[in-house]
Amino acid sequence: MSASNFNIKGLTNEQVILAREKSGQNTLNYKQENSILDILKNLAKEPMIILLLVTALIYFVSGKIGDGIFLSSAILIVSAISLFQDSRSRNALQKLKKLTQPNCKVIRNGNTEEIKSEDLVVGDSLIVEEGTSITADGIIIHSNDFSVNESILTGESFPVFKDKSKEDNFIFKGTTVASGLAIVTITHIGNETKLGKIGKSLESIKEEKTPLELQISNFIKKLVIAGALIFVLVWAINYFRSYGLLDSLLKALTLAMSILPEEIPMAFTTFMAIGAWRLMKIGVVVKQMKTVETLGSATVICTDKTGTLTENKMSLAKVFSLTSKKIADPNETNDDEKALIKIAMWASEPIPFDPMEIALHKAYKDLHEKDERPDFKLIHEYPLGGKPPMMTHIFENNSGQRIIAAKGAPEALMNVSNLSKEETQQIEKAIQIITNEGYRVLGVGVSYFTGNDYPKTQQEFKFTFKGIVAFYDPAKKNIKKVLEDFYQAGILVKIITGDNAATTTAIAKQINFKGFEHSLTGDELMKLSDAELQEKVMQTNIFTRMFPEAKLRIITALKEQNQIVAMTGDGVNDGPALKAAHIGIAMGKKGTEIAKQAASLILLEDDLSKMVDAVAMGRKIYTNLKKAIQYIISIHIPIILTVFIPLALGWIYPNIFSPVHIIFLELIMGPTCSIIFENEPMEKNTMFQKPRPFTTTFFNWKELTTSIIQGIAITAGTLFAYQYSVYQGFDEAHTRTIVFTVLITANIFLTRFYISNLVRVSENKNTKKGNLDR
What we know:
seven-stranded antiparallel beta sheet
């Protein structure tokens, strides 16, 4: 391109230097997350790790090397579990940097130069051409048949035509030029671009703990406080009795360790890990393990339209032939309408790549027995151009038969056709009816011309307007059943899309989507106050023309209404909302890397029906985890009392269990009971119940009392075994073995009790509840 053709001089070298001093480099700069140091800091806050370290140190100092090594091994095991649980993929911000190509073309000092993209400055005249990635935000000052694929920002895969005369005359960093050429004046670079602001939004969103995590964490904190107080008390009593510092510390640490229920976080981790493995088997990749349980409490699912509810491919939906003067379905066409489809196909590329052109070629092949395409050769073409735009193709066969076909915006074809007032009214009425149903329309025309001296522009041909072809992205075949399953499970579904209201409403009607009558656009949403939005967000189920800031406000408003929110997405524009949602769900096939990194789940096949299975899995895990924790409390009480009572009452063997025995019991019991309880089948009517409320307490007094009573009963058995062993004259080692055996046996019998009784009681209760819900 010659810059002088457009009288564009660009910036001078001095202006470039001044602009760089003011705005900096065209790079995306974000702080690195999740460093090794942060992980180690979090690990050092674990109460059990601290106790184990102190105890191991005491063993080493007192010369009990074997016990010290055993506890050190336990530290490594617990640390590995904690690291596995806390590891997260948080590289979404780094992925944004890869969306910029290394070099770009600019006009400076009146000449075209190729520079590094990072050297671009505000005010530069950037040249963008077909196939290139746009490296900064700017405003168009010259263009030629210019269109941009903005799917990375909008989620919609159709190119958007732009020029300086249109209201939408901006281009954005990270998008791709689909056709033509443009010169733009750069307005924003680096973090100030639209893409950069999405990155800043991602950076500002902090990961939240799930309701269950908070409840378990609060429960354990209370026990830690109780354990600390008892530790000080027991250490003081034993020290003033014996004046043995290390011995009294070991006894106090043993009791403190017995109070801390390390099995609960271990059981939580085990449940989540096995659940993640099960979900992987059905095509759902879990990036954050805690999400597995949260799935079961999801109350709202916010879903994209294109590619999630629909096939993300164009199909011919309607045809209107000016000859037959009626709107028809493609599979119910007469000869006039078949001829219209044939002309529209000739107006397309011989090897189609545009979704609508692919649909036209398919419709032609399905409706015509003889395929004439191999007999004709493209001899001349006019690319998409004009205002409104249209395109024309000229084909000819070996015998000289010529086809001149055009398609484009209906207004473009109407302007170059000789139509009567009545015909114009008929066409406009057909367009209104079709577009009101959410379809995309193209006008089709045909012309006749002899000779090879073709006109300079396609608009100089004398066209005959043949009709209208309409397209739509059809709904997925299973989507009605998926929505029905969500509604049956008491989950609200909301559509959040970058598409327009008419198209979205039309699809929503077809799939029996609840609440299709009302919708809200992104611009309307941003004008609402927070209080107004919180009310509106619960009443509205369709949100159209959405952009990143609007999507994030929806998610935030729903969370403030105590909803557990799941959000599906595939584009860069979905990143902030995916990260902010309790459950971010990215598409595996069409999802961008940024969406996958920001999300906590990935659907490998882009199939929303897998989310129904995932929700069912989450509900099953919550129910079984609750049983496992009740069991842990029941079996943990005997450990505490068996350590405390001989110590407090000064029995002959006051230190019947040492820290080694406590950690052995906890490391064995936690994973064992987790695997057994996790494997329990799903209870009846699980997916007929409403999600549990946000405020539901994991530990209720009735269940806690039952666990305490069972624990006391087992304690009575272990203490009886202790006293019987002493009465028989057994030494400390034999007494410990007998008490240990009683505890393990009680462990086995209690597990069987919970599985055989609690499950049956719960099933009976849920059967009644399910019948009421239905």
